[in-house]
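User: I'm curious whether this sequence folds into something compact or stays loose and floppy. Could you predict its structure so I can see for myself?
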Amino acid sequence: MVNHLLRLPSVTPSLRCSLPPIGGSILQSLYSYSASSRCFFCCSRRRYRLNRVIADMESEKELMNEAKRSVNFRLCRVSGSMTEVMEIQAESPKYHVLFIPGNPGVVSFYNDFLESLHQFLDGNASITAVGQISHTSKDWESGKLFSLQEQIDHKVEFIRQELESVKVPIILVGHSIGSYISLEILRKCPEKVLYCIGLYPFLTLNQQSTKQSLIGKLAASSLLSATASFLVASLGLLSMSAARRLVSYSLGASWSDTAVQATCTHLRQYHTMRNVLYMAMTEFRELAAEPDWEFMRENQSKLAFLFGIDDHWGPLHLFEEISKKAPGTSLSIESEGHTHGFCCTVAGSVWVAQHVATLIKTRLNQKRL
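Assistant: Here's the prediction. I'll summarize afterward.
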């Protein structure tokens, strides 16, 4: 009987689970609640920090996408000649970069370079690239051939026609023979040009180069030039897809899509190849002389050149000669494994664009001081 009266009532399993354990049950409950609260707030802080990081990354990505804008292509007539132009216009430019291509002077080869340069300059520059006359996808000039001097005059006239109203300083950037053309523009428009950068510059003949000798002989012969142009133009019989596969296979997988496309649209044209070789012939005649060292010394503070390690167009002995005869010139040697045709690969385009942007920013900082 007593045992019956003292028997504790049975507890259902569900209720048993809800009861606090014996021995400091209230303290343990409080501790458990406190730990849970700390865990909640820690997780909240972690989530907040993570959300902030994600938001910052998204903002940075948006800024980068905004900074890297696509180039616009247009045609314009300069001195009566149809001209291919690629450009990126900044909203509030602090300076204007005018890019002069090499030979072939097809501006679309430089698409990746121009977009990367605009990005590395933080969107502070408008950029214009002007192609060589009749190095075009269509034969606008009806087969007429243009010399180096005519190409120089064309670029000077382009500045007078298209950039006369530009109020910010102009920075010239030239590639290969475009470096020589840029120097001639500086000579004729010194008041408008703040800085002149030559990339893998072709400024004088390299008598030690067998390749230059062979190219010179080919370009000097009208018969050989016409034959070579005809053979290259015969590839125009291929479809675009077949031509792209052929170019990619023969030139290597490292070439960018834009370079392959430019090759297929422009260099398969007879008039383009004839003009490439004719311009080369006149280059070899003009550049047989020594560079104008006096002019380069007078303007050495405005000049910068980037050389390659194994580039017969801009050999390192020219680098040494410039360093002695115009020592105030900014000189660099690229040792990243890129080539004279840097614009044909994305990696080369990006690296050179970053180098050019650094030169420009350094020059502008020096000018402020």
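Summary: The domain at 71-207+290-368 is CATH 3.40.50.1820 (Rossmann fold). The longest helix spans residues 25-67.
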